[in-house]
Write a structure and sequence with these properties.
It contains 10 helices and 5 strands, in the order βαβαβαβαβαααααα. It has a 5-stranded parallel β-sheet with strand order 2-1-3-4-5, with helices on both faces. α3 packs parallel to α4, α7 crosses α9 and α7 crosses α10. The longest helix has 15 residues. The chain is α/β, with parallel strands linked by helices.
């Protein structure tokens, strides 16, 4: 799928996902009043946003977590799968470690608390389209503490089977579905099945992420 890009010189189109009307309309109005930014559409629910957002309509997403039905974390995960390069910032009242960790793992590029001043929110939007990862100071402190507590294992093969390791190595070496299927004398559907299992075990969402993780952690 085509990825989302946003030239720094163009107007940055923001999609706001927020269930509280006063906050949603306030954010939309403030964004529209800020030079080089626009908010052509805002959404009350993640479901309605997912139906309309596409790679030609939006340059970044600003989403709440506590939404009706599908929450912002699950929505972030789906958006990240559909649009790998789409910047996504969480704007929420929740500052719990679990929600911060889950949102970042789902693919959020930044995490802001709703107490953040409007001007700082706009600075964060600018920062994220330039490749940054903006966070409220309290959130940043919590993230640092989480990483201090986290001790990854010296080595893990993520319980990959011999066949999955072979396919992962071939993907790293530049093979495509068809060439993997040909070399291993299996069907393309079987290759696709194994890759889905590989992505699930590695906790990644794309071939490029799987390749990067395999190289970074010496899995092959």
């Amino acid at each position: 799928m085509q990825t989302v890009t946003s030239p720094i010189s163009s107007t940055i189109r923001v999609a706001v996902i927020e269930d509280r009307r006063e906050i949603r309309e306030g954010l939309q109005a403030f964004i529209n009043l800020t030079p080089r930014f626009s908010c052509p559409k805002s959404y009350r629910s993640m479901e309605s946003a997912l139906r309309e957002i596409n790679d030609n309509a939006v340059d970044l997403v600003l989403t709440d977590i506590g939404l009706p039905n599908m929450d912002g974390i699950e929505g972030t995960r789906i958006l990240r799968e559909k649009f790998p390069a789409l910047p996504i910032i969480v704007l929420t009242v929740h500052d719990e470690d679990d929600k911060i960790f889950r949102a970042l793992c789902a693919g959020a590029n930044g995490y802001l608390l709703k107490e953040t001043a409007p001007a700082k929110i706009m600075e964060a939007l600018q920062e994220v389209v330039e490749g940054g990862a903006p966070m409220s100071p309290e959130v940043a402190r919590r993230v640092v503490n989480l990483f201090r507590k986290f001790r990854p294992p010296e080595y893990s093969d993520y319980d990959l089977t011999a066949q999955e390791k072979t396919i992962l190595k071939m993907i790293v070496n530049g093979h495509h579905y068809k060439t993997v299927a040909f070399e291993l004398d299996i069907s393309i559907n079987t290759v696709s099945f194994h890759l889905k299992n590989i992505y699930s075990k590695l906790r990644v969402h794309s071939k490029s992420e799987a390749v990067a993780k395999a190289l970074r952690e010496n899995l092959i």
